[in-house]
Amino acid sequence: MNFQGKFKYGQHYYDFDEGGMFFVSPNQITGGHAPGSDQSGYTLLFHPDFLLGYELAKKIKEYGFFSYSIHEALHLSESEKATIISVFKSIEEELKGRIDKFSQDVVISQIELLLNYANRFYSRQFITRKAVSSDLLQRVEEILQAYFQSEAPQKRGLPTVQYLASELNVSANYLSDMLRSLTGQNAQQHIHNNLIEKAKERLSTSEASISEIAYELGFEHPPSFSKLFKLKTSVSPVDFRRSFN
């Protein structure tokens, strides 16, 4: 959806007077416009079956913004707005014209173009809002450090991306995409990095067994810990510990 005005999502209205764009997946419930407010824009709805037989049917799952919350909408610059509107107009023109055997190909190629532009513009948004994103990155590190320094791993297991996202009040996909844009690593990789740093600390400063450390960090099965540690460091926990003796 590309629009201006106030839009209802759940029980709340969100102000997009400067223009915005957001995406919803099948079976997601959205709202309507606020009473008395002026709205303008485009809404593009298509059934998943429309994509069957096309590469986009599989590729569309790679566009994380279909799972973003509405407060994580894409805020467009004037030039970006013009680009997006031109694509919408091309789709509209194609659908209003005479339908032939090429019509579906053309519309689907335009949908894919729209999604690729959205990917590009979201990447720009992560960068231009770097102050906000950097604060979020700092909070990620603080939350993970606090988690591993507490008894939470033994009680709740390894922290998940969903846990991080809920602590930050953002959607899981938005968090991963934002982190990947800033650092080149997604949320799961940040969790693993913090876990490995804590593991190195325990291996180098304590006499606890490898299994005990694995359980302390939230692993149900010590071999899973050893496998991840070697994957991330190229050495086993045993060999890492030996290097300090």
Poorly predicted runs: 9-15
Number of DSSP E strands? 3
Round the Cα radius of gyration to an integer and report it: 23 Å
Morphology call: elongated
Strand order of the largest sheet: 2-1-3
Would you tell me the overall average pLDDT?
A: 85
Strand content: 5-15%
The helix count comes to: 11
Tally of domains: 2
The separation of the N and C termini measures 60 Å
Elements, N to C (H/E): EEEHHHHHHHHHHH
Q: How would you sum up the major sheet?
A: 3 strands, antiparallel
Category from helices, strands and their pairing: mainly alpha
Helix percentage range: 55-70%
Question: What are the SSEs and their pairings?
Answer:
Layout: E1 2-9, E2 12-21, E3 40-42, H1 56-59, H2 78-96, H3 103-128, H4 130-149, H5 152-156, H6 161-168, H7 172-183, H8 187-205, H9 210-216, H10 222-233, H11 237-242
Antiparallel strand pairs: 1-2, 1-3
Helix pairs in contact: 2-3, 4-8, 8-10, 9-10
Explain this structure:
With 245 residues, this protein is mainly α. It has eleven helices and three strands, in the order βββααααααααααα. The chain has helices at 56-59, 78-96, 103-128, 130-149, 152-156, 161-168, 172-183, 187-205, 210-216, 222-233, 237-242, and strands at residues 2-9, 12-21, 40-42. Strands 2-1-3 form a three-stranded antiparallel sheet. The chain is elongated and about 75 Å long. It starts with a strand and ends with a helix. 22% of the residues are buried. Mean pLDDT is 85; it is low at 9-15.
